[in-house]
Amino acid sequence: MTCFKLPKSLYKRIQSALTRFWWDSKHGIKKMCWVTWNQLTCSKKDGGLGFGDIESFNDALLAKISWNLGKAIGNGESTNIWYDSWLSSTEPLTPTGPPTEASKDLKVSDLIEEQSKDWNTDKINELFPDLLSTIKAIKPSKTLVCDSHIWLATKSGNYSTKTGYHLSVIDKARPTTREPNSTSFCWNSLVWQGNFSPKMKTFLWKIIKGALPTGENLSKRGFQAAGPCLRCGEMETAEHLFLHCSYTKKIWDLLPFSMNPRISDRQSFIAGLQAGHRAVCLPPTGITSGPLFPWVCWQIWRACNALSFEIRISEEETMIKAIVSARDWQTAQIKVDTKGSTSGKVLHSLPTDTVEIFSDAAWKEDLRASGSEWIINRNSSTIHQGSDFNGNVSSPLVGEALAVRSALEHAARLGFTKISLKSDCQTLINAITRKESIKECFGILGDIENLISQFQFVFFSLVSRTANSLAVSLAKNALACTPTSL
Question: Are residues 310 and 289 in contact, defined by beta-carbon separation less than 8 angstroms?
Answer without folding.
Answer: no
